[in-house]
Amino acid sequence: MSKFTRRQFLRNSAAFGAACTIGVPRLIRAQGLNERLQVGFIAAGGQAGSHTGQAHRAGCQCIAFAEVDKTRWGGVLDKEGWGQAVGYQDWRKVFENHGKELDVVFVATPDHSHFAPSMTAVSMGIHCYTEKPLTWSVREAQLLTAAYEKNKKVVTQMGNQGHGTDGWRRAYELIKAGAVGDVREFHTWTNRPIWPQGGDRPEGSDPVPDTLDWDAWIGPAPMRPYKKGAYHAFNWRGVVDFGSGALGDMACHTTDGIYAIMNPGYAATAEPIFMTAPVKDQWPAGMIVKSTYRAKDGRPGFTTYWYEGHDNDGKPCMPETPEELKRENRQLPRTGNLIIGTKGKMLVEGDYWDSPYLIPESKRREFGRPPQLLERSPGHHAEFFAACRGEKPREFSQSNFSYSGPMTANIQLGNLCARAGKKLELDESGKIINDPKINELAWREPRKGWGPLEMKI
């Protein structure tokens, strides 16, 4: 049976099950079909462990996976019932050998390798969950957004897990109720990086471990020698060729509420207002990026500030503590958001928008709890699985690529202006207009053979 027919059958059987509660599993088995979602994984260790665990608990069946480091294959093979899954070190083999069987693919590789397998999955009609940041570059994010719009039956999700929680929804409801007036500024800060940043490319090379496919790890990036501890399995985040620094690591979490609440479209401008040093082989050790967004949907324009790392004196890059907290002998948390409006301020503690509240405390008590405007989520992965099974529409998976694509493009725009070392001005389509040659930095041609296997946009 073709993959389209099987997936269509799963969708139809889910719809049929809503109207008739008898016989669906028997009917599927009688036709030799597997009612369980058949999944593949591009990466099995590290953050991928979250997805292998979620998929296993959800009753999915893993049929194939790719993991460049064989010491991490246990992330799939050690799970009950998954011991027969076929493992590869090269992600392309998963699609070449199992594309017709797969319902769902999870991508949790380093940032530079997100785009090609994700684009391949969507273009082949396979549901796709990709870790944050969705892509390494601005243009890759825009292309995945286009692919989602083109391939109408594919369910997608980016791994900003806080989007499935209540926090940003409560913040949305406070803002819509007028708690802070018109929003003028968002200040967002993080305690990252917790890996090396600010340095240059290490010299020399080391022998590649027998268990690691270095060519597959490098993937679409320019080839360089293996250096023990410099890249795999963690420190790649600070290296420009492979990671997106603190901004790429955390902004999909800590700025998620901004995009969910404001629906801003593409930034009008982005500029690095502070960097500890120019971008070299690694991202700077500290950085502050300012972006402006246009008026839209009856609301005024607004400005965002992103703070990461430390300044040259070792002081954390973060906003000044507002007077509302100082009067209560309180300090800002080490990560969070400060929202400044025409009538008040809101503080969001932590990375995932879990605890938004008005400041000072007297304002919080006075305003109370706003009316609920938004439906609550059953959970980030639960949304995705329900949509993949056809129990819910594809948009029920709410951090789908039509949302997370433009969000990622804006986030990576912050890194792009850092690389350019200057203020960038953009039109409403996301194209840089004040220095068009910078658009070339928004895209990197994949190393030969390591681009998408299919690209339907």
Give your account of this protein's structure.
A hairpin with a 3-residue loop joins β11 (336-341) and β12. The radius of gyration is 23 Å and the shape is globular. 46% of the residues are buried. Helices cover 31% and strands 16% of the residues. The longest helix is centred in the C-terminal third of the chain and has 20 residues, at 401-420. It has 457 residues and is an alpha/beta fold. α7 packs antiparallel against α15 and α10 (245-254) runs antiparallel to α15 (401-420). The protein has helices spanning 3-19, 24-30, 48-57, 74-77, 91-98, 115-123, 138-150, 167-176, 214-218, 245-254, 256-262, 323-326, 361-367, 380-388, 401-420, and strands at residues 38-42, 61-66, 86-88, 104-107, 127-130, 156-158, 183-189, 269-275, 286-293, 302-309, 336-341, 345-349, 355-359, 424-425. It has 15 helices and 14 strands. It has an eight-stranded mixed β-sheet with strand order 13-12-11-7-10-9-8-14. Strands 3-2-1-4-5-6 form a six-stranded parallel β-sheet, with helices on both faces.
Provide keyphrases for this structure.
457 residues, globular, disordered N terminus, eight-stranded mixed beta sheet, single chain, six-stranded parallel beta sheet, alpha/beta
Write the topology of this structure.
Blueprint: H1 3-19, H2 24-30, E1 38-42, H3 48-57, E2 61-66, H4 74-77, E3 86-88, H5 91-98, E4 104-107, H6 115-123, E5 127-130, H7 138-150, E6 156-158, H8 167-176, E7 183-189, H9 214-218, H10 245-254, H11 256-262, E8 269-275, E9 286-293, E10 302-309, H12 323-326, E11 336-341, E12 345-349, E13 355-359, H13 361-367, H14 380-388, H15 401-420, E14 424-425
Helix pairs in contact: 6-7, 7-15, 8-11, 10-15
